[in-house]
Structure prediction request, 445 residues.
Amino acid sequence: MVESGIKGPLAIRRAVRQGVRLAWGAAAALALAGCGNTYRPVVTAINPVGPAAQPQKYALAVASSPNPNTPGLVTLVDFSGDTVLVTPNVGVGPYFLAIDPAGVTGYTLNSDTTLTSFDISPSLLTNQVLETTLLAGANPNGIFPYSQNTYVTEPGRNAVAQLSGSPIALHQELPVTANPVWVAGISGGARAYVISQGSTPGVPGVAAAIESANNTISTTIPVGVDPVYALMTADGKRVYVVNSGDNTVSVLNAQTNQLDVVPTGATNPIAVGATPVWADLAPARNELVVANAGNGKGVGSVSIVNIPLCSTTAQPTNPNCNSLNPTDAAGFGQVLATVPVGHSPVMVAVLQDGTRAYVANYQDSTVSVVSLLSNTVTATIPVVGRPIYIAATQGTPTGKVYVVSADTVAPNKNSVMTVIRTDTDTVDTTIDLQGTGVSVKVTQK
Prediction:
């Protein structure tokens, strides 16, 4: 799937297990003849050595084979050591990767009209990858694992397929407005939203609400022109829809199931930079970071948007604040900064501590590091090939940023995944993907 106006597929979770070693020594029991004293065994603990334990975490990258009609490949990389653990095959020509919210199951859409699903495990074998054949003419362009169901957007049938079971199979199709492109939601949320562009260019798209209780569509909400991406906040209260056709972000109130009513002086949709294509949340700062591809004549940018909801401290300026359905706090929707980055940015990934955002610049073969403390670019990191997908995760002593490029590289003529350390913002290593790169995801952000 092309998730933006930039050419090439855009599609990202990884992990590792590292334990703390503990050694034990013991003193032997000793009976001294003639003294009558007996000495009990003594066990002495030696303080743990080595680095602190890391959570189990992986990066998962997918690549299509350079040979037509040949299965693609999933590369599972451990977080701490950047080691390739397994490389099982998936369907022919994979072009979209997704993982479930728990980070335990991966999915790919493949050009042979199949969907594959598999456990994210360092012992995964090709024969353990499950395959599901999708309906003819569906032309699926996205997967969204959601609680007990998996939704697949089907622009060829103007529908969203609801799948469940193992291997997952079609349960029903939900008719939606023409050209659905994305599903946004959180696991366990009351509802998810299907974003559709419509059949007429230049006309606003819509968001259709799927009720998780009964898997029916309850309402359709207008958004901006040519929506390409959407995401829901972790608390399930707001949805942000990126509209590339009119340079805006629409805000949905997922609790009232309608367009958000913004504070006086704010607007909905929110005006951002030229041709927005992606966004990520900085929850620690109550900010939304939007990647803008630009007009093709100069560099792109990121728009940093203030998105606080009312709270105890914001109560004086929000007299109607309700903890069950909070209103937007003062300053909601304000664009705090527009930061120039490289040419043709395609994606942005934010560290969850709110310190930095990493922007993949397709045309420049670089990643821009944007400080969310100063709203400036603090580093520009060259990567191998033109990046099409980026994912970030935190850790101790360093987090990692994974960047997949679609370009093939000599001598193997494969794409590579560049791994960046977040403590130094330098390239740690590159990993051969044994094919043409498509996407990367991490199991924990």
Notes: The mean pLDDT is 87.
